[in-house]
Amino acid sequence: xxxxxxxxxxxxxxxxxxxxxxxxxxxxxxxxxxxxxxxxxxxxxxxxxxxxxxxxxxxxxxxxxxxxxxxxxxxxxxxxxxxxxxxxxxxxxxxxxxxxxxxxxxxxxxxxxxxxxxxxxxxxxxxxxxxxxxxxxxxxxxxxxxxxxxxxxxxxxxxxxxxxxxxxxxxxxxxxxxxxxxxxxxxxxxxxxxxxxxxxxxxxxxxxxxxxxx
Length: 214
Ligand SMILES: Nc1ncnc2c1ncn2[C@@H]1O[C@H](COP(=O)(O)OP(=O)(O)OP(=O)(O)O)[C@@H](O)[C@H]1O
Fold this sequence. Notes:
Elements (H helix, E strand, L loop, with lengths): L11 E12 L2 E12 L3 E5 L6 H8 L9 E4 L10 E3 L11 H10 L7 H10 L15 H10 L11 E5 L7 H16 L3 E5 L9 E4 L6
Parallel strand pairs: 3-7, 3-8, 5-6, 6-7
Antiparallel strand pairs: 1-2, 1-4
The site of adenosine-5'-triphosphate has 11 residues, from α1.
C-alpha cells in the first residue's frame, strides 16, 4: 500500500494586507502587502524617506496604523510584542551595560542569570563591560548592547524580530556573527523583517516599499 505524505504549510508569522505606511497626516505608502513565513528573513528596501522605519515602528506598536490588516501567526496579536531593535537605540545612559541588557530582556519576560548576561555580552564582544556606565561607550559598542538581547531570544519567546539597520556601526566580524544568529533564529522557526542599506545576504525575500509609494 502506498503511503500518502502530506506537507504541512509553513505558518505565516506576519501577514500584512492593504497596509498604509503613515507618519502623522502624511501617507507615505499605500496597499503594502507582505507574507512572512516562519523561517523567512525579509529585507525591507526603498530609498531614504520611503517609510521603512515608519513601517517597523507601526508593527512595533510605536506609531498608529490608520489603514491595513495585520495577522500574526494567524491571530490578531502575538503572545508578546515583536522584538524591535532600532537604530535610535533606547539605551539608558545612566545604567550600566548589564543593567541595560537586563532591562531589554525583561521586556520579553526573561529574567536572565548573571551567566546569561555574561554570555550575551561576550557574544557581542563586550565581556568585561558589565559594570561600565553605558554613557562611556562608543556608538558601535552601544549598538552591541541593543543587539546582545538577540543572543538569548528564541522563536518560542519572541517569534518576530523587527530590525532597523542591524549591521550599522558594526565591524566585519560582528556582522558575520549577527548574520549567523539571524539565520539560526530563522531556521528555528522565527521570522525577521529587517532594513539594511548594505546587502543583506541572509535575506530570503525582499519587500520594496518604493513600489507602494503614494
Ligand atoms: N520623527 C519624525 N516626525 C515626523 N516625520 C518624520 C519623522 N521621522 C521621519 N519622518 C518622515 O517620515 C518619512 C519616512 O521616514 P522613515 O524614517 O520611515 O524612512 P526610511 O525609509 O526608514 O528612511 P532611511 O532610509 O533614511 O532610514 C520621512 O520622509 C520623513 O518625512
